[in-house]
Amino acid sequence: MSEKKSRYFIRTFGCQMNESDSERISGMLGQTGAVKAERPEDADLVIVNTCAVREKSEAKLFSYLGRLAQLKKEKNLRIAVVGCVAQLRGWELLEKKAAVDFVLGPDNTAELISLVQEEAAEKHVSTSWTKEWHETSPGLIQRDSPVSAYVTVMEGCDNFCAYCVVPYTRGREKYRPLRSILGEVHDLARKGYLEAQLLGQNVNSYQDPDSGKPFTELLRAVATVEGIEWIRFLTSHPKNFRPEIAEAMAGIRKVCRQLHLPLQSGSNAVLKRMKRGYTREEYLNIISRLRSLMPGIGLSTDIIVGLPGETDQDFEETVEVLRQVRFINIFSFRYSPRPMTAASRLEDSVPKVTKQRRLEEIQRVQKDIQLEDHRRLVGQTMRVLCLGHGQKTPHLFSGRNAGNQVVNFRSDEDSTGRFVEVRITGFGPFSLLGEKTI
Length: 438
Ligand code: 5AD
Ligand code: SF4
Known about the structure:
By secondary structure, the chain is an alpha/beta fold. It is built from 13 helices and 19 strands. It folds into 3 domains: 3-126, Rossmann fold (3-Layer(aba) Sandwich), CATH 3.40.50.12160; 138-375, tm_1862 like domain (pyruvate-formate lyase- activating enzyme, Alpha-Beta Horseshoe); 381-436, CATH 2.40.50.140.
């Protein structure tokens, strides 16, 4: 290794899984003596952790790589593209973007260490799958938050929803052994973390590879760890969300009364074309069961508008479900065809303007729902886990309540990393505003 410490900058696109992978990559690079830089201008290695889920995510990546290529003309820089787009595009990335040096799929990011240590000058592409779980020692993860931690419990997805590229970028499902998950959660508790967020593309299908124990046992085991007070998990799938999971959630005090349950569409015809494996009625039954077991549970969802063949009537059925369920938050997207997926073989028949109109309508309907529901919370006092200063509101602290709503609040003292009681005094469509009472 050279005397001079190498400096890396990491840019993360996409989901929590990618954020978590980036924290692991930072930890691994830290082990080699490399130091994190705040800007690509100050780094000699830039790692771009990528998302392939929508066309727009890839477009953003390519424009970012264009900017890095400019920077590379001015200084000595190596560029590593890792994660989902790396897996999907492989060598093609080097052909399209000559400035890129290394391309590593989600199972190959550990190779960064030797590439950095050997100061590799050659271009390098590695996108092979492995069946085994890659364990990272918990001590090696450089986490962004000192309060709430991601804990990966499984990787990959076997569902092959018709629109989704994830099974082709993250591969088949593989599960992390329960004992190593518990090892990591104990380590978090020792470090003072209060919240663990269990991550995976399809967490409900978790099975301990050693004992065959299902997801509900994982929840029970994590809840026994003293010091961890709140447990969340994502992403769930309505098809795999068995009644026992709702019962386990209700029976475990530490599991937050919150669930992200992607609906995608409220039309049975569209759900069928999506190959989601449930009907609108089955989805609504799950919601009723959750609400009867856990009144006040915070529900959020994902919606895609404009799947091939989606009619105005189909779309209206989605809007109806939103009005009926009253989610606390939704993530909504215009459909875009992705390589290798079943839907990409259908004609992308809904015009872009129609997709845009539907997206805007769904977001308007949801915004009104959130404003109405937030208004009703004014005057109430709620428990909030303070995560730090607000990003957009530095004069306020920011946290989340058990239902996963964002709560910004005034406080005379720094409450970061503590549970506080907050009285709600105001609201916006996407967050609540309040004052700390205790
Ligand atoms: N087009 C638009 N949205 C998509 N998603 C996944 N694939 C696509 C696609 N091809 C959305 C789904 C998923 C979320 C992570 O991204 O709603 O739940
Ligand atoms: Fe994609 Fe469906 Fe798997 Fe989610 S469940 S990652 S949408 S294939």
